[in-house]
Amino acid sequence: MGGDYAVIALYIAGMIGVGWIGLRLAKTKSDYLVAGRRLGWFMYSGTMSAVVLGGASTVGGVKLGYTYGISGAWLVITIGVGILVLHAVFARRLVKLRVYTVGEMLDLRYGGRASAVSGVVMWGYTLMLTVTSTLAFASIFKVLFSIPSWAGIAIGGSIVVLYSVLGGMWSITLTDIAQFVIKTIGILFVLLPIALVSAGGFSGMAEKLDASYFEFTSIGGETILTYFLIYTFGLLIGQDIWQRVFTARTPRVATGGGVISGVYCLVYGIAGALIGTAAKVLYPDLGSAQDAFATIAERLLPTGVRGLVLAAALSALMSTSSGALIACATTTTSDLFRKIGLKSGEVLRNRVTTLVLGIVAIGIAMLVDDVVNALTIAYDILVGGLLVTIIGALFWKRGTREGAYASMVAGTVSVIAFMIIDGVAANSPIYWGLGVSLVVYIGVSLATPRTPDSILSVWTERLHGSEDHTAAEDLSASETRQELTQ
């Protein structure tokens, strides 16, 4: 595997090198957290695609294809639908608000300290999302070096933490573009066609597999509905996704680039399911379906090419892991630290926070053994706790601060309670969380005084701000940064 090692080593060195470039660019809070709000169409769509298509979408998507066939694409399809809806309906509003976190948006809309509650929920979500992507490093490095899972997690996680700490969102954005290109070539243009041909094409696979592998709903209607509730809605409100939206130069860039990204996600989801289906034909007796991606890459591809595909898998894992990590750090400094009197604007404090949280995520990942279950925990908490409050903030003027508080607490507690009662993989936690959250939000909001007009007027003015508005901090961006984002 000498050629593979060379390709992987070159890739890793490139990611760390980009981190050093980001260190030079990240001079202000805006630079470190939202890349100076300077991204154009290409960089925006590439980085958005990279952040949402991570370990669960790649390793997990192939795993579901191995288990259910083409129906395994639903997990990633619902992610793509979430991206499309986010950018068709919400993106312009979010860019105009010019905030850094979901909590800051809630504070602006409800006129209170909603970020104290939402920050805790969002912190739990982003941390578990970081853990999910970090966990998936184990399957890739096990193939490369035949090392224990914990060592693979430590290696992959350390690389992500290093370049994320150095340059923040600038490092992450630049590495995401490289990862997006590698991932597209490795998964869509190399592994997918080779896997299909090796498995005998669609006719050959149909002869060897049960017909259910080619039914688009064989994974189950309830599971598909749950995926939509968790992932489509989760993509609408996640800090890791919103923080990428905030990097767009204008609302128009966010909308157009996001639609391109959503379509790419749909294609990627079908590709992963087909690769998993081919793996079932070629290697029907794997001990764990989660090893399907790494196994087909190891056994099917020639040296060098195999290294490229494994680098593509690492790209998917690192892009989501780094995006979730910087989102967790941003929530910590902008929402949680701010509540105890610590300033969030210092780049050094953001770097230290990113480092500490990265180490914590690596530690937790060593204790978790299922990438899809870990992702389910993250999205259940997010959607059950925050979806109703955020949608209400954007579309229902009668929603109040008290209603928001009560809804977030009730929804989160319900999700956690039913995870304990019915298990992490059950569908009931998200149903109960959303239902309780909605009832409490409407009931408490109607029972409490309306949000003052003074607060709503500021909110409305911000929502209708100019698309070409540029904050003072953005004007200090260097000519170098502007050239990089073209």
Describe this structure in words.
It holds the Pfam family SSF. α3 packs antiparallel against α12, α4 runs parallel beside α13 and α12 packs across α15. The protein is built from 22 helices and no strands. The C terminus is likely disordered. It has 486 residues and is mainly α. The radius of gyration is 22 Å and the shape is globular.
Summarize the structure.
The protein is mostly helical.
Helicity, as a percent range: over 70%
Shape assignment: globular
Number of beta strands? 0
Q: End-to-end span in angstroms?
A: 38 Å
Q: β content, as a range?
A: under 5%
Q: Give the low-confidence spans.
A: 466-486
Structural class: mainly alpha
Mean residue pLDDT: 84
Spell out the helices and strands N to C: HHHHHHHHHHHHHHHHHHHHHH
DSSP helical segment count: 22
Q: How does the major sheet shape up?
A: none
Radius of gyration in whole Å, from Cα? 22 Å
